[in-house]
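Not sure how to ask, but would you mind making up any protein sequence you like and the tokens describing how it folds?
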Amino acid sequence: PPMPDEGRPLAAVALPNGHWWVGTENGTLYELSADLELLGSPGAHTGWVFDLALSPDGAVVASASGDHSIR
């Protein structure tokens, strides 16, 4: 699998460059390539990630979590 076993994916957003951001039930965030190769895991929440949003220019991804934070 492209992601370590850090919980089920609950939210995903596709970027204009073909990459994906995925948030899991354990609060982990992942960036995946268009081929679903793991590119990085820049941070995490302490609660599950229930939504991801992309800025209009595609430069910023925001994540919302059950821990009441947005990153």
Notes: The beta strands are 9-14, 20-24, 29-32, 38-40, 49-54, 61-65.
